[in-house]
Design goal:
It is built from 14 helices and six strands. It is α+β, with helices and mostly antiparallel strands. About 40% of the residues are buried. It is elongated and about 65 Å long.
C-alpha cells in the first residue's frame, strides 16, 4: 500500500487504520485475527466507488465490522477446541491509549473477558456504540439489522455487561504501584508481600494454549494464588526477570526466562489491591508483543 500513498482510497484507509484495528481487536480479542480482518477490509475497500460514499469512516467501520463478525463465528469453533483457559491476545499500547480512560477500560483483559459472554452481534453493537459512539443507523447498516432492533440489542448488551463488569479500575499510577509491589514479592519469593497486594478474592487466569504449562481453570483466593505462583517459581531452572510495559492501555509485566519472553502478566486493580491476574503464555499470542510495535490512539 505504500506505493500508492497518493491514492485517495489508501490515504483514507491509512488515516483510519488504528480505529479499524481497534474495532476488530475489541470484537475478536486477537491481534492476529484483527490484522487479517484489516487485510480483508482493504481488499473490499479498494473496489468501492468512493464518489458514492457519503462517510468514508463509517463505511470502513461497516466493512470491518462485517468481516469481524464472519471471523467471530470461525473463532468460536477454535475456542471450543482450545486447551485450558482462553485469554485475549495481549496488545502493546502507547501511553496515549492509557490516557483515554474509556478506551483503556474497554480494552482491559477484565472487560474483554466479559465481552466474550456476548453473542457476536451483541458484541459488535456494544463495541461500536459504547466504545466508539457510532450512530444507531450506521451500526444497523454494519450488522444488517434495523435501527430499532439495534437499540434493543444495545440495551440488552449494556445491561449484560454492566451486570458482569468488574469495578472500574484505578488510575495508572495506582496500578503501577500495585504492580511494583507484586513484582518485588515475586522476585524475592515473599509470600507475605504477595498476600499484602492481592485482594482476598483475587482470581488468576493463565493461558498456555496447551503449548506451555498453565492452570487449566481459574484459581481464586489470595492464599491459593500465592501458593500457585511461588510454587511455580520454585521449579524454574532458568533465571527469571520482569519488566514494566503497557498492555491493553494499562501497566503490565513482561516476564522473561533467560532473556526469552515467557509471557505477559496483565492485572486489574481495585482500591489499590489486585483483584484479577491474567497471565498469557501461549507463544502464538505473544507475537504482537514481541514485535514491539505498540498501538496508538484510535
Amino acid at each position: 500500500m505504500s506505493d500508492h500513498a497518493a491514492d485517495p482510497a489508501t490515504e483514507s484507509f491509512v488515516a483510519h487504520r488504528n480505529l479499524l484495528f481497534t474495532v476488530a481487536y475489541e470484537m475478536l480479542g486477537s491481534a492476529a485475527d484483527a490484522e487479517d480482518v484489516l487485510q480483508e477490509t482493504w481488499l473490499r475497500w479498494v473496489g468501492v466507488d468512493l464518489e458514492r460514499v457519503r462517510d468514508q469512516r463509517a463505511y470502513l467501520v461497516r466493512i470491518t465490522t462485517r468481516q469481524s463478525l464472519n471471523r467471530l463465528r470461525t473463532m468460536a469453533r477454535r475456542k471450543e477446541a482450545y486447551v485450558g483457559s482462553w485469554l485475549p491476545e495481549p496488545l502493546l499500547t502507547t501511553p496515549d491509549v492509557a490516557e483515554d480512560v474509556e478506551l483503556a477500560e474497554s480494552m482491559s483483559m477484565a472487560l474483554m473477558l466479559v465481552l466474550e459472554t456476548l453473542t457476536p452481534t451483541e458484541r459488535a453493537v456494544f463495541v461500536l456504540r459504547e466504545v466508539f459512539d457510532v450512530g444507531y443507523d450506521d451500526i444497523a447498516a454494519a450488522v444488517d439489522k434495523t435501527p430499532v432492533a439495534v437499540r434493543q440489542i444495545a440495551h440488552r448488551a449494556r445491561k449484560h455487561v454492566d451486570a458482569r463488569r468488574p469495578r472500574r479500575s484505578v488510575s495508572p499510577r495506582t496500578t503501577r504501584a500495585a504492580l511494583e509491589s507484586f513484582r518485588q514479592a515475586i522476585e524475592t519469593g515473599d509470600p507475605q508481600g504477595l498476600l499484602d497486594v492481592l485482594a482476598p478474592d483475587v482470581v488468576l487466569i493463565s493461558d498456555g494454549g496447551g503449548v506451555k504449562q498453565a492452570s487449566p481453570r481459574p484459581i481464586t483466593g489470595a492464599d491459593k494464588v500465592t501458593r500457585f505462583m511461588l510454587g511455580g517459581l520454585s521449579k524454574l531452572d532458568r533465571p527469571l526477570s520482569v519488566s514494566f510495559t503497557l498492555i491493553n492501555g494499562s501497566p503490565a509485566l513482561l516476564v522473561h526466562l533467560d532473556d526469552e519472553l515467557d509471557g505477559v502478566l496483565a492485572l486489574h486493580v481495585t482500591d489499590s489491591r489486585i483483584t484479577g491476574l491474567y497471565y498469557v503464555r501461549n507463544p502464538e499470542k505473544l507475537t504482537h508483543v514481541a514485535s514491539d510495535k505498540p498501538l496508538g490512539p484510535r
